[in-house]
Amino acid sequence: MLKVLVxxxxxxxxxxxxxxxxxxxxxxxxxxxxxxxxxxxxxxxEAVRLKEKGLVTEVIAVSCGVAQCQETLRTAMAIGAxxxxxxxxxxxxxxxxxxxxxxxxxxxxxxxxxxxxxxxIDDDANQTGQMLAALADLPQATFASKVELAADKxxxxxxxxxxxxxxxxxxxxxxxxDLRLNEPRYVTLxxxxxxxxxxxxxxxxxxxxxxxAPRLKTLKxxxxxxxxxxxxxxxxxxxxxxxxxxxxxx
Amino acid sequence: MSVLVIAEHDNASxxxxxxxxxxxxxxxxxxxxxxxxxxxxxxxxxxxxxxxGVAKVIHADAAGLERGLAENVAAQxxxxxxxxxxxxxxxxASGKNVAPRVAAKLDVAQISDITKVVSPDTFERPIYAGNAxxxxxxxxxxxxxxxxxxxxxxxxxxxxxxxxxxxxxTADAGKSSFVGSEIAKSDxxxxxxxxxxxxxxxxxxxxxxxxxxxTPLADKLGAALGASRAAVDAGxxxxxxxxxxxxxxxxxxLYVAAGISxxxxxxxxxxxxxxxxxxxxxxxxxxxxxxxxxxxxDLFTAVPELVKAL
Lengths: 250, 310
Prior knowledge:
Chain A has 250 residues and is an alpha/beta fold.
């Protein structure tokens, strides 16, 4: 029984340009489109492909957060995850808290692999996978662009500064996905319908014995500094003139 | 209390991102120590000792540290962590790989990608692809931080004369091993350290055209080459050239974007550049909204013309 655990996060859709609230307490996410974090979608796709190749037997999707994360989990099951677990809470979850929740689920489910996105596109933290690996004392391969699973180890090619690097990890292991790992499939209507019938269990952080209180306090959220308006130049000659004499950068 | 910087290095030399991280560390207050964890990394440790503002270099040397495996480097940091109020990593592929392991083991939050030190416990960091800036305060006893290098000037690489202390290396965790790497050899400046970057988008149409059109411009300007995600996904450019929210964050003196429409994810990676030039034939392309100089033209004629005019 080779199980894969795939944590997925519900985030503001990547096409939405968020606005900072006028009272500077955060960004306005009321009534904006929410989707699965794109890197997590790649993680689900990779896990499902491993199952389709017969290398794993069960793919379990997990999400931590508000009740609406069920939609994200249904999407994961429409891609092909077999069942799902929601760790439901209204508390603002920071990466360390999510990693602790996932650690509790790793202890319970004993997966051979955990595959998750390298970062979420809302808080851009890039922490959860590595934190989970540390807490569970597992080896990690972050920013994966290729995964090759064998009986007792996994070989992962990683996107690093300057090129690619390949690591071999003993199992169980944690992998975080980069963009080029795969191209997630479109979910079809029949699979969406099928996903509605799949098992989705809900637990609370208390059930897992995890304190999820935030550690970082957000004092304010502001708009980034705006760039001054630029100009259009008529042709290449005008551009070169500006770069030489006005901007003085060449 | 002192502040610890984890050096980015290749065992022989210190990478530029370390210098920006030292500047952030100085802003946190206290003596700045630098950890060089590597193998046969004496030269890198000596280079770290020369960085202006560094009080001490701690050099840990072992075969298991040669390739920067996260499990082993994190263990090395944890072995000395109790001496420090702040532990800072550059927000590079290797820094981002290791820092969260350290934070989790210390049971503290990590503050990712800081762009400003407001006070020793309060930091600014971009969220939502840089569309908002959060000011966050940490109540944890140790602050584990990754530093966005474009947010801080580089410390001077010379002028310091720190003592180099040897630390006992931690044992190899034995759960991961390095198999191989494909690191492109290039005479060009590193993307994140370059003064000028020329970047190409999907409009280039093929890898051949990308090379044929963009390379002469980069050669002429002594620039690094970058690319949009669309160009990388299409295979026109290698993955490590990607500039954007989830690729490299750059802020050169001059950024030339050719055939890049300017998705918010791309803008997140380059909008802090000093001067931005956009060449695009679509007058509505969002890249023009951040460009100092916009040239509405077909890149296949404009870029070669630019090469000639320079």
